[in-house]
Every structure is written in C-alpha cells, then in structure tokens.
Design goal:
The protein is elongated. 44% of the residues lie in helices and 20% in strands. It has 24 helices and 22 strands. It has 583 residues and is an alpha+beta fold. It folds into four domains: 2-107, PAS domain (Beta-Lactamase), CATH 3.30.450; 130-226, Beta-Lactamase; 244-423, Rossmann fold (3-Layer(aba) Sandwich), CATH 3.40.50.300; 445-574, Helicase, Ruva Protein, domain 3. Strand 10 and strand 11 form a beta hairpin. The model is unreliable at 502-508 and 577-583 (pLDDT under 50). It has a six-stranded antiparallel sheet. Strands 2-1-5-4-3 form a five-stranded antiparallel sheet. It binds adenosine-5'-triphosphate. Residues 253-255, 281, 283-289, 353, 393, 395, 471-472, 475 line the site of adenosine-5'-triphosphate (ATP). Residues 253-483 form the Sigma-54 factor interaction domain.
Amino acid sequence: MKRELEKILDSTHDAMIAIDKHNFITLFNKSAERLTKISAADALGQPVQIIVENTRLPVILETGVSELNQKQQLNDITIITNRMPILSDDGEILGAVAIFRDISEIIELAEQITNLNQIRETLEATINATQDAISVVDADGIGVLINPAYTRMTGYTNEDIIGKNCTVDLAEGESVHLEVLKTGKPVKGKTLKVGPKRKDVIAEAAPIIVNGVVKGSVAIIHDLTEVNEIYRKLDQAKKIIRSLEAKYTFDDIIGGSEILHYAIEKAKIAAETPATVILRGESGTGKELFAHAIHNASNRKYAQFVRVNCAAINENLLESELFGYEEGAFTGASKGGKMGLFEKANGGTIFLDEIGELSLNTQAKLLRVLQEKEILKVGGTKPVPIDVRVITATNVDLEKAIKEQRFRQDLYYRLNVVPIYIPALRERLEDMDLLVKHLINRFNQEYGRSVERVSDSVLEIIKSYDWPGNVRELENFVGRAMINIRMHEYLLTALHLPQLSLGVPNINQNLGKVAQKIEMLGSDNTLEYRVAAFEKFHIEAILEKNQGNREASAKELGISLRTLYYKLNKLNRELRIEKNEIL
Ligand SMILES: Nc1ncnc2c1ncn2[C@@H]1O[C@H](COP(=O)(O)OP(=O)(O)OP(=O)(O)O)[C@@H](O)[C@H]1O
C-alpha cells in the first residue's frame, strides 16, 4: 500500500516534501527531485533546513496554520506553494507537507497573451490611424472590422457593417471580398461605387490566411476623387515646369530709372488683360525678358509660353511652323500632320520676336489669326479655334516699314494695342550701378569669384560708353572682366576690363578708353609721367577714332602732322607702361 502510494506521488507533476514533527524529511517525490535538483536518497531522513533553505515547513509545524497559494522563486523557477500541517484525527500535529507547482509555463503563456494583446492594440491603432479606408470580413464574408477612414469615405459606421454581409456598402460593382474568399487570391484595381453617395473608388483586397486556410479578407479602398485630384495637381505641376520656359518675372528686370520703371508699370497693367502687346526697343534691351514677365504675371502663367524668332525660321517653313499642317499637305510632311506653334501656345502666350522680319504673305495669315481667333493648318480646310495672347517684339522702325510697304498697316494696328517702349541702356545711365552689381553677383556665383566692389574708374568707363548692344553687351563685357579677375580678388578695376567693341566712336568713349589705359599705368605718379601718358593715350584714341588717318587726327588734335609723328615716337620711347598679363 505504501509503495503504491509512493508511486502515485511520484507520478504527479506537483513536487511534494513532507516532514515529521521533528523536521526530518519523510517524503520527497520525483517532482521534488526535479525541482530542487536533490535526490530523494540524499533528502529523506535529513532535517528539512539542510536540504531546503528558507523553508517554512518548521513554522507550519509550530503554528499548525496552512499557507496556501504562496508565489515564490526557486532556482530561477516561479512556483506556487501550498503548505499544510499533517494532523492526527484528534488534531495533533504529526508533521507538515509542502506541495509546489511550477508555474513558469503558465507565466510564459500569460506573457504571450499580454504580448498578443499589445500587438493587437498596436495593429488596431495603426489601422485606425491610416488614411486608407480598410474593411475586414470573416471567411463567410461577414464584416468584422472597419476603420475611421472607411467611415469617412463611405459614410458607413460599425453598426452598418459589423456582422452584416460584405455587399452592404456596394452601390455598383462586384464585392472584392467575395472574389477573394472565392479564389483565395488577391484582387487589385477594381473600380466600384460605394456608399449612399455612390462614391467612385478603387478597391484592392487580399485573403487572410492562417495555417493555409482562408480565414477572411481585408480590403483597402481609395477615393477616386482624391486620385483624380492628385492627377490634377500633377498636371498643374507639369504645366508649372513647362511654363518655366518663361523663366523671368518682373523681379528679374533690374534698374531703378524712371524711364524703365514706366515701361515696367505699363507691362504689369497689360499683363492683367488679354491685350496684344508690342515691345519696342533696340537689340538687347530686355524685350524677351519683358515678354516672360508679362506671361508669368498673367492668368495664363500655368499654360505654355512659346517663343518664335520670326527672323530665324526659313520663310517657306514659317507658315507651317506657326499654324501646323495636315497629313499629306506637301511632300515630306510627317504622317499624322503637325501641330503648329499657335496651337501649342493655346491657353497661353505666343511671343513673336523680330516681327518686323515677317514676309507680307505671312503677315496676311497672321492678321487673319488675330482677327478670327482661329488657325487654318497648311493643307487644311477646317479652322481650329485658339485662345492665345500675342506678344510681339521688334527693333525695326515699323512705321518706316509701313511707308516703304514692307509691313501691313492693318496688322500694325492689330499688334499695336499696348505698345511698350524699352529704353536703350545709354538712355538710363542711372541703372548702370544696379545692373553692374547684379551682373557681378551673378558671375560671382557662376564663375566662383568673390568680387565685392568695382573701382570708380570702371563705372566711369562703363557710363561713358555707348552700349549699342545694350544689356546683352554689358552682360558680355562684365562676364569677360569676371573671367580676368583672380579667384580671391574682390575689387574689379579697369585692369580687368576687356576691350570695348568700337561701335560708333564718341568723345565720351574716347575718354573712357583713356581712363582705362591710365589705370594700367604703374606706380610712377610724377606729373611729368602722368601728363605724358595722358597725351599718348589721347592721341591713340583720336587716331583710333579716325581709323588711323593721321592727317585727320592731327587736324582734330590741333597740331601739325610733323608734330604728331614726333610726339608719337617720343612718347613711345619714354613711357614704360606696365601691362596686365591677363589682358
Ligand atoms: N533690365 C534688365 N535687368 C536684367 N537683365 C536684363 C535686363 N534687360 C536685359 N537683360 C538681360 O540682357 C539679355 C538680353 O535681353 P533680351 O534677350 O530680353 O533682349 P531683347 O531686347 O529681346 O534682345 P533682341 O532684340 O536682340 O532679341 C538677357 O540675358 C536679359 O536677361
């Protein structure tokens, strides 16, 4: 009987240790051995304190009171202990027994459950926070979860969806959930209408598979109106990039002179209207810059800006370039025909530069376009309506061209709606300082230079020159000077300046050249040396003006020809002029 009892006790998972009333161990089953890593042979008959430290069994012997469900650590294992006295029938304490249960596994399981809970919470928070509308159904197609984005998009709440068939939200189209549950495969890009407002959406869905079995389906729907809005924005962005072809705005027009300011103000007013603008001014005054600025300040700024240099395109091609052609219009015409520049600029602006160069034939066609607001392609019979703002520019005297019957008067009236005259650079010397500063900043960046100032004589030279090529020539001149300057020089002096193109000589220009050369002189500041240098440079300048004609130069200088030769020889001998190596 005792053996059988021991067998039963050994087979239980609970560890058991019993002691007699003298604290000696009387029972130590197999589970106790596993838990304490002490063999029953070592334990039995020993005082319990020797075998198990901090045991409370002796306390139980004394008090006779049970201690139940006590959690404690034993060799890194969490156990639950029940300790009870062993009582005789008449209540006498015969010993005590402790039963331990290893609960590590249970704790691990509990931890896993807690973790799973956390994962679930995180997943739920993510699903709720996402802007995509999500719905989940079970294997029978019954709604189990929707997120707030879904409610926002469809108008349906938990009440309408959870526990209901997955087709309840559909206004038009097949349920993606049902398709997924049927095929077990993901579905993509289905267009449907959902909700009471029949919202257009794109849906995609995927199966939820657990252990190889389809347990449900999860779907994401995207609002097509949002997608369309994204396309619209993309399109607008493309247009903005395209309109960067007109890259300048009024802020890029540098100058503070009253005469330029007047032109800018007039252009700004014109920009707000659809009126045809004609920009008049010499070459390089900034007519194209103005055309860009007008386009970019108008409500057509997101549409195309098309520049046509009427002088650069072959007269035979110009018509088909401007108005396009139909397929088979002429030998060599591309298949499908070609869109003309007017059509390309539809909704935007066409800038016809050098309009004075148009042939009378093309002038007649252009007049028709301006009057009818439609184009007729070469070889075509059906006119195409167009909405284009026309800006033209010219540096030729159109009025004279009309008198000479090179330009049509009726076209002139059509084009001359808002004439804007852009003054030549020599008419606005006040702008020079600002322009030079602006150009130096620009070339500092482009060429990696660090020029901070220009010497007074440079400005003097610049202001004394005629600038027949206007701002373009000034740009070129400063750019070349900036190449001449070394990396760490911060003062631009006359030494850095390139030769100015001769143009039509005038006295100011001559003085400028003299000043430029004087700055090339060395450190000899004696009056004799400087006066002699001035004399030499002045003679050279006058000679240059008279294209080397010595008689005319001597006459202009008020000296005899003999004196001129004498002076030139003498001055060349006497003057040691330090030349800038870079120039
Ligand atoms: N006021 C200004 N401020 C800054 N840059 C200017 C100004 N005027 C002209 N420019 C610059 O000078 C150069 C020539 O200008 P633009 O091409 O506009 O002149 P244009 O009058 O159209 O010349 P063309 O008649 O030869 O075609 C351009 O690089 C332009 O940016």
